[in-house]
Amino acid sequence: MNTAEPMLMVFPADAVLNALPHPVIVVAPDGRIIDANAAAEAFFEASVSFLRRQSLRDLVPFGSPLLTLVEQVRARGAAVNEYKVDLGTPRNPGDRLVDLHVAPLPEQTDYVVVMLQERTIADKMDRQLTHRGAARSVIALASMLAHEIKNPLSGIRGAAQLLEQSADEDDRTLTRLICDEADRIVKLVDRMEVFGDERPVEREPINIHVVLDYVKRLAQSGVARNIKFIEDYDPSLPPVLANRDQLVQVFLNLVKNAAEAIGENTGGGEIALTTAFRPGVRLSLPGTKTRISLPLEFCVRDNGPGVPNELIPHLFDPFVTTKPSGSGLGLALVAKIVGDHGGIIECEAQPRRTTFRILMPKYISATTATAEGVEPDGAQRLREEH
Known about the structure:
Helix content is 42%, strand content 21%.
């Protein structure tokens, strides 16, 4: 025996399949699911024992191209791929865009293996980079407004106050209107100045559940006092490297929006706060080979009427709002804060199920970073390059 030869280790097939980050299912000749990996359980939000009792037709939309692909693979005995197929169903709502890879099982060609590769995350990351650019595009405008508009507004307001002293009661109503409108414009400019703040953010390891509990208490004493909160937290979630006050601002804004969407007089209103660890989601930095892992998922979901489909691609752009009296800067600021922390935010909206999902990097200590050969502060690197 040659001792220099490495020993080959044999791993169970289930262990190999469950290690894959992409959903994999095996379809029998009669269309039944006979096996599925852990990623498929997460994708279909069902256990493998439940999936084994289902037909493929029960899991995909009516007339789905996946059903046709499975039949083609059986007939041809060769693998087939199709890209950007929507697998959203009432059981799994939302845009579930996937790339399909369908192949016959060797030596049992009537059995078909289906692998799904989600497109949603990749597409959302591309859109998120656009959102960050849109938020940054108002930085120069905010600086200009601060210097070029506040000064003349101050003069206009002062002139109106002088006129008020010698005006009759009817004219005083107009001078007060001038002062009130000048004050309103100044407040709007003050809000926009936040986009021009490029100072480094002071951050520390934060327990996101402490932040969410604090936001929930604030909301329950104000805008969401009549709304039921549902909490689904992963207790083993590692900390996130963040600024606590800014995280409070982000989630308070999202919860406030959810509460306003539900409305005060709507019975059965619910806001769900969820956290999860989603390994495998990585964001590439443009122009570099660096990839930042975004395993921390924080969601705010409500059962309000939803967001119009035409607004979804522009929801985080400045001045886009569904509120008659809104300024459209709240979600743009949320996107800026999340981006400054190296994360992404996206919205999935259907009637009675609107979800704002934030993906962020976990905190890596200097000791762990040295041992693993990674940068301790990936979020800062991402913020600087974007």
